[in-house]
Amino acid sequence: MSKAILRTNSRKTDLYKNLRIYSHKTTRRILKGVIHVQASFNNTIITITDVRGQVISWSSAGTLGFKGTKRGTPFAAQSAAANAIRTVVNQGMQRAEIMIKGPGLGRDATLRAIRRSGILLTFIRDVTHMPHNGCRPYKKRRV
């Protein structure tokens, strides 16, 4: 294989010779955020946003490699919460609000992992959907 030879006398290289290259990715300092926890029976998803709702970090039990019924365990939820919070603590988050949704086993384990991380919690809110009257029940079974 032969290497490509760059032509130095072309006008294009002269134009770009004095330009500086900047990286587009900058680390933002986030002091306050919202931690959304969705705990179902099969998985636990943790999403961390800033106050405006833009996602900063997220993790779930499935992305950490837990498969099948192990995704719904409290240990998997605790690991997912620790993984999501690790990146946010490095960006300087100090305070957070928690919104917990769902009936899963990972609710309490996630809360314990967040408390242990050192983030100060302003409030914890349960935003699980509650049906007012629910769906129409099935027909009564005739035997």
For this entry, give a set of tags.
143 residues; alpha/beta; Nucleotidyltransferase, domain 5; five-stranded mixed sheet; 3 helices; 23% helix; rRNA binding
How many strand elements? 5
Average pLDDT value?
86
Helix content: 10-25%
Strand order of the largest sheet: 3-2-1-4-5
**CATH homologous superfamily (4th level) name of the domain at 41-126:** Ribosomal protein S11/S14
CATH architecture of the domain at 41-126: 2-Layer Sandwich
**What would you call the structural class?**
alpha/beta
Q: Sheet bearing the most strands, described? A: 5 strands, mixed
Notes on the structure:
- With 143 residues, the protein is an alpha/beta fold.
- It has a domain at 41-126: Ribosomal protein S11/S14 (Nucleotidyltransferase, domain 5, 2-Layer Sandwich), CATH 3.30.420.80.
- The protein is built from three helices and five strands.
- The chain has helices at residues 11-15, 74-90, 106-116, and strands spanning 32-39, 44-50, 55-60, 95-101, 120-126.
- Strand 1 and strand 2 form a beta hairpin.
- Helix 2 packs parallel to helix 3.
- The longest helix is centred in the middle third of the chain and has 17 residues, at 74-90.
- The mean pLDDT is 86.
Quick structural overview:
This protein is of the alpha/beta class. It is built from 3 helices and 5 strands, in the order αβββαβαβ.
Blueprint of the fold:
Elements: H1 11-15, E1 32-39, E2 44-50, E3 55-60, H2 74-90, E4 95-101, H3 106-116, E5 120-126
Parallel strand pairs: 1-4, 4-5
Antiparallel strand pairs: 1-2, 2-3
Helix pairs in contact: 2-3
